Amino acid sequence: MKRLxxxxxxxxxxxxxxxxxxQGPGSGSGADYVPxxxxxxxxxxxxxxxxxxxxxxxASIPFRASQHDDALVVLDTGVxxxxxxxxxxxxxxxxxxGGLYAFNKAVYTPERRVWHARQETSMVNxxxxxxxxNTDPSVRVTWVPPGQRxxxxxxRSTGRDTYSAEQFxxxxxxxxxxxxxxxxxxxxxxxxxxxxxxxxxxxxxxxFGNCRAG
Length: 214
Prior knowledge:
single chain, alpha+beta, 3 domains, four-stranded antiparallel beta sheet, two-stranded antiparallel sheet, disordered N terminus
């Protein structure tokens, strides 16, 4: 329970650090994000059509997070049960249920931010493939034109704990199929670098098969 409360507090503080505009290019988040791009041609109708397709594609990315569900069920059941035993009024009960709903949603704020980032990256990648140039530094374009892609190395560096590092990254939703590369090893430890689906890179340190971020 303490962990859930900590997550909620951290999420609330992080929300206060947002610097995006309230409206116009660069505003919004997730599938509601409004891209800030330079169009290849002055054709507003074509842009709106392209944006609608890219937004629909981004909106289709599902939100998956369930690691706190069991604790939330216990919390919700306990609060509702306590309210029922105390004879709380219908109006008060509605307020409690509404508060629980808001709290349950807030608990997954960090995961929801990662999901929104994936949707935004998907949107700007889609537009980039159509010739639009992203001008918003808060969203990273990961798509690279075929002619500019460098040749992938034939072999990636791996180690004894590479599989464990990949499973660690997968459990934290870095990527559906994470590919870890060994960057450093020493007596009893290995450090891996793993590209994530949201464009960021996860650093993982493993000691005798036990992995952690860092």
